[in-house]
Specification:
Layout lengths: L1 H27 L8 H18 L3 H7 L5 H14 L3 H15 L10 H8 L10 H15 L4 E2 L4 E4 L2 E4 L3 E3 L2 E3 L4 E5 L4 H11 L10 H4 L13 E7 L5 E7 L1 E2 L18 E7 L2 E6 L7 H17 L5 E5 L8 H9 L7 E10 H6 L2 H12 L4 E7 L10 E10 L10 E6 L6 H12 L3 E4 L13 E4 L6 E4 L2 E4 L6 H4 L5 E2 L11 H4 L3 H9 L1
Parallel strand pairs: 11-12, 12-16, 16-17, 17-21
Antiparallel strand pairs: 1-9, 2-3, 3-6, 4-5, 6-7, 7-8, 10-11, 13-15, 13-20, 14-15, 18-19
Helix pairs in contact: 2-4, 2-5, 4-5, 6-7, 10-11, 11-14
Length: 519
Amino acid sequence: MKSMICQAQDKGITQFVAILAALWVLLATGCSPNLTAEDRRADVGFLARWAKDYSPFVQLNEKHKGLPGCEDIQPKYLRLAEQAQSNKEFLHIVFGYFNLIGESGHGYMPMEVQLLAGMLGLAEHPGISATAFCKAMYWSKLLYKESFVHPPFRVVHREGKYFTGNAWRYKGIDVPRGSEIINVNGMTCSSYLDSIQQNTWLRYVAGNVTWITRYLLVIDEGKDFRGWQVDFLIPDRTTRRTFVPKKKGLALPALRTSYWLKGKRNCVCLELEDDVGYVRVHSFAGFGKFIERDRRKIKKFLERSEGKYAKLIIDIRNNSGGGTYYWAENLVRPFLDRAVTYKQITGIKRKFISDTKQSDLKWLRGGASVYGYETQIEETEVPPGFGAKEWVFYEITRRLEPSNRYDFSGDIYVLINGGTFSAADDFADAIKRIGMATLVGQNTRGGGTAYFNPVIVRLPVSGMMFILEADLLISPDGTFNELVGTKPDIELPACDLPESVTRENLLKDEWIKTIIDDM
C-alpha cells in the first residue's frame, strides 16, 4: 500500500513538474508576436471602437477634465501604429492611446502576477484561455520591466517638490531621508519632466500624465541609459551631487517602505494615546481565513481596551482595494448597533449590455452583488446630460446588518488619500452615505464598483490585455466617483505618510495629530 501511495505521489509530482515545464516553454517561446502594419492598425481600431461604444468615461473626461477626444486623435494613433518599428514601440503607442481611455476608474494593463493567476485558473475569467493570458504576459513584461525604471530610494512628491523617502548611500556619499531633489541631469525637476515627455516614449502618451510627475525618476530613457546625475538639498541645507543608478522595472510601494504592509501584518492595531486607538489596513484583498484573522485581531484589540477609546482612527491611505466583503465584515458591521441602508446610482451604456453575452454579464455582476448586501435594483431616471436611448441607470439599495459587535462606542475617523482606490473607495463611499464615521484627508482616487466588475479588454491580434470599467458611479453630491473620487468630510493639507507603522512615527503624522488634538 505504501509503495502504491509513493507511486501516486511521484506521478503527481511528475505531472506537476511537466505542467511547469510546459508553462515555461510557453512563456519562453510563442508569445512574441510578429505583427504586420495591418495587424497593428486593427488593434488600435478595436480599442478606439471599444472606447466609443462602451466606455462611460471618455466623453466625461473630455468635458470635465479638458482631455482630448479619443475619436479626434484616433487617426494619429492608427498612423503611428502602422509605422512602429518594433513590438516595444507599438506597445508604447497603444499604451499612450489607452492612457486617455483609461484615465478614470480602473484603467491599467495587468501585471504579470495578475495574468499568471488567470493563466493558472486561480482567478476566474470566462471566455479567456490560458494561452491568451500567456500572450498578454509578453506585453506586460515589456511595459513594466522594460519600459519603467526606478531609483534605489523612494521618491516622495509633495506640493510640486520631490524628496527622498528613505536614507540612501552611494559610493561613500550619504543622502538622508527627506533630502530634496533639486536638479536632475542639470535641469530642474519640472524641466526634466518636460524633457522626458518630449524625448522618450512618453511622447506617445495622450491625456493626463500626472502619474509620471508623482514618481519623477521612472522612465527608461533609452538603450544607453544607466541612471541620473542628481543634486540633493539635504536637511542641513547643504547640497550634494551624486550619480543615481537606475533599477529596472516599476517599483511597487509594498517593496519600498514598511508603511505598506502585507501578509500577517496586513492589519495593525495600536494604542496611540490612552483614549485613542488606531487600525491600519493595507489591503482589502483576500478571502476566508485572511479576513477572519484580521477581524479577530481588531476584535481582541478593542476588547483589551475595555471600551476606553473615545476615538478610533482607521487608516486606509494608499489602500488599493480588494473586496467589498472585507470592509463590510471587518470595518462596518461590527461597529453597527442597528441595520443601515444606503442607495447608489450607477450608469451603463445600453450597447455594452446588448453586445455582451449573458453569462459574461452575470460574471461581471458577481463582485458587485455578492454576500446578499443588495436588497433591490431598479431602473431609474437618466440624469441630465445623458441620453435615455444610449444609457441605462440603476438605483441599487444595499443593507448592512450588525454582526460580531466590537467593544467600541466612540467616534471613528477614517483616513483617506489619493491612493485610496477601488474597494477601499467603496468603503469610503459607504461611510459617506451611512454617516458611520468621519472621512479625513484628501479625495480618494475613485474606482468604486457599483454594478459591474472591471472589464478585461483584449486586443484581438496582439493579445494585449487592459482593465477598464463599463459603469460609472454617481456620488451623493452629484459628482462622478471615478472622475473625482470620494471627498473627505474634513480636508487636510498634503503630508508625508509615516515611514513605518509604529506608535512613535504615527504620533508625528500631521493628520493623526490633527485628529487627536483638534477633533
